[in-house]
């Protein structure tokens, strides 16, 4: 399936909420241009207020940095009425003030090629910045640190490069961060998991870092790190995410070690995917005892051993359980009965006697099939380039990409089975607090 699509009609529901929220808080931002603003402004142009003049400078600099716009998104970016520019959304200033400000930019699915100039930092009133499914390249400018009201940053499915954009740590209002399907590389600062985010998507980049011990500090509801070269183990602190975490996808991340029993504390989790890694040991019994909300469990293509417990197969909401291509030696009768009645339990290519389509006797006698003592298994989680890979050494090759949920297909958020709806409920809560 092609990742490029013709831009769909813009939806205004989420944008309207964001614009109202941004307008309620705009009085807290500065209107100074600082060292930015190299665009010459025609003295004949009249602007409603200085902030719209700043926005004009930023957008004209950006237009000059665009070298392909096949759907003519920026053809309307002329004149002083920046609020009429396609993809630009304005909102009134805070109560008691006159005029409007640019509070949202949505150029999703525009297939625009270019880069982000530093003048974009002049858009200090932005609450929403969506650029998914374009061809923007280069690095993310540090001038975006001026966007103190930014709530959603979606740069997914572009060609951005360089290290993790640390400018996100200067965005105090940020709740939704989507950087997937780019070419970012290197390590991800551990402080990212201390940031008060609601959703975090870093999958399908070139990141190389061990998952830090403070993973459990993150309050996200959705975490997708798939198709990177993380290495190391899943820290036990993951259990601290129980109150908020609904979905976590760590497939094809070069993970090693055992699954920590603290996973069972994630009682609100609906999706857990750690397939295509090098995990060892048994499935924690805590999964079947506590995770009553679990709907999708995928541990395929690892080195897991032991017996599939009945408690997992009998989870009330579980409708997709994949444990193929491991070294399990048995499954509870309840699992076999469930598999006979449903076609969404896949346990092929294991070492389960009497079950069809299993590994050969030679494979089941190999060192990879030997059980391990998770209490003694040492695990490295180095954050150096290449990532930790436990006792298996360090891989400098980028792991092959495995199919993951595609980039967002709507204007405001992902819509695939592994991604949440737009975080409008969170925004409504913000509005109630103002």
UniProtKB/TrEMBL annotation:
Using the record for this protein, list the coiled-coil segments as residue ranges, or answer none: none
Renumbered to this chain, region (Disordered) spans 375-425
Q: Which residues form the signal peptide?
A: 1-25
The residue ranges of the Leucine-rich repeat-containing N-terminal plant-type domain are: 58-90
* Major location (coarse): membrane
Q: Which InterPro entries has this protein been placed in?
A: Leu-rich_rpt, Leu-rich_rpt_typical-subtyp, LRR_dom_sf, LRR_extensin-like_regulator, LRR_N_plant-typ
**Cellular component GO terms, alphabetically?**
membrane
PANTHER family according to UniProt? LEUCINE-RICH REPEAT EXTENSIN-LIKE PROTEIN 2 (PTHR32093:SF115), LEUCINE-RICH REPEAT EXTENSIN-LIKE PROTEIN 3-RELATED (PTHR32093)
Protein's recorded name: Cell wall hydroxyproline-rich glycoprotein
Q: Which organism is it from?
A: Prunus yedoensis var. nudiflora
């Amino acid at each position: 399936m092609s990742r490029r699509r013709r831009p769909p009609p813009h939806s205004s529901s989420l944008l309207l909420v964001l614009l109202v929220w941004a307008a309620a808080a705009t009085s807290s931002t500065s209107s100074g241009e600082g060292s930015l603003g190299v665009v010459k402004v025609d003295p004949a142009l009249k602007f409603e207020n200085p902030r719209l003049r700043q926005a004009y400078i930023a957008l004209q600099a950006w237009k000059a940095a665009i070298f392909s716009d096949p759907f003519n998104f920026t053809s309307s970016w002329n004149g002083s009425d920046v609020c009429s520019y396609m993809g630009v959304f304005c909102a009134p200033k805070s109560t008691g003030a006159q005029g409007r400000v640019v509070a949202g930019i949505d150029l999703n699915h525009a297939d625009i090629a270019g880069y982000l100039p530093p003048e974009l930092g002049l858009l200090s009133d932005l609450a929403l910045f969506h650029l998914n499914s374009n061809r923007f390249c280069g690095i993310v400018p540090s001038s975006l640190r001026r966007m103190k009201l930014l709530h959603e940053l979606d740069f997914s499915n572009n060609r951005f490069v360089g290290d993790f954009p640390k400018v996100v740590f200067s965005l105090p209002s940020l709740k939704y961060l989507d950087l997937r399907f780019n070419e970012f590389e290197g390590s991800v600062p551990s402080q990212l998991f201390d940031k008060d985010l609601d959703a975090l998507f870093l999958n399908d980049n070139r990141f190389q870092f061990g998952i830090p011990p403070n993973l459990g500090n993150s309050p996200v509801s959705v975490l997708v790190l798939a198709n990177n070269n993380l290495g190391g183990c899943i820290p036990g602190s993951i259990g601290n995410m129980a109150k908020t975490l609904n979905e976590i996808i760590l497939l094809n991340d070069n993970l090693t070690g055992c699954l920590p029993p603290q996973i069972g504390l994630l009682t609100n989790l609906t999706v857990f995917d750690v397939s295509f890694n090098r995990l060892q040991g048994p499935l924690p019994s805590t999964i079947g005892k506590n995770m009553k909300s679990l709907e999708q469990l995928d541990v395929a293509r690892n080195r897991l051993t032991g017996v599939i417990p009945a408690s997992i197969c009998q989870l009330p909401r579980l409708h997709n359980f994949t444990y193929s291509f491991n070294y399990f030696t048995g499954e509870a009768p309840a699992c076999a009965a469930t598999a006979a009645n449903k076609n969404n339990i896949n346990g092929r290519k294991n070492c389960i006697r009497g079950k069809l389509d299993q590994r050969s006797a030679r494979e089941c006698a190999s060192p990879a099939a030997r059980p391990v003592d998770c209490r003694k298994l040492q695990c490295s989680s180095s954050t150096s380039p290449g990532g930790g890979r436990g006792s298996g050494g360090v891989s400098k090759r980028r792991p092959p990409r495995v199919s993951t949920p595609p980039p967002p297909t709507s204007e405001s958020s992902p819509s695939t089975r592994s991604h949440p709806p737009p975080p409008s409920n969170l925004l409504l809560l913000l509005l109630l607090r103002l």
